[in-house]
Amino acid sequence: MRRSDLVRRLAAVPGFSTPRADREQVVTPPEAAVDLLDSVDRLTGLPGTSVLDLGCGTGRLAIGAALRGAAPVVGVDLDPEALDIARTSARTAGVTIEFAESEVSGWSGPADVVVMNPPFGAQRRHADRPFWDAGLRLARRSLHAFALADSRTFIARRAVARGAHIVETHPVAWSLERTLPHHTRPRVPISVDLWVIDTGNQQ
Fold first, then answer.
1. pLDDT in tens, 182-191
2. Which overall architecture, per CATH, does domain 3-198 show?
3. pLDDT band at 180 (very low <50, low <70, confident <90, very high)
């Protein structure tokens, strides 16, 4: 599938019906989502690879992975309304994904690859930590995730402490659209990095 086609299909996945600020429920920009999926293809390949989307929200990353041939694909989130949207969007996209309601810290099912757009910790301090801990624990091969640029030291230390290898970190274009009540501008560019980490858990 061409990049432009995947961007278009992910852009059609709806956002949250009633987004919550305390959970930082904002959707992943479709172009950034495809950047992340491209990083999986470069490192491990998506076809036939099991993928876990932690904090999947309405399912853009999970759906994109399935459209690229990943299987099985699992999405985990705490919000039942978001999961309903994700299930409907997956059916519309013609892909099979298991969506489960759970705290990420309580999820125990590993996958070859973990993808995630976790809370950035902007509204609730350290909200991102359970996601990074779970991702590093559950990814057998690699973890691909977004984070604010000012989280670089924290994430690098977390990864090294688990014996993981940072393959690459680079900025991605990210425009935060007005979603939550405290957002006053139609969109605001923010400094976000894409992290690619070889967890080494399969060794």
1. 545 556 688 9
2. 3-Layer(aba) Sandwich (3.40)
3. low
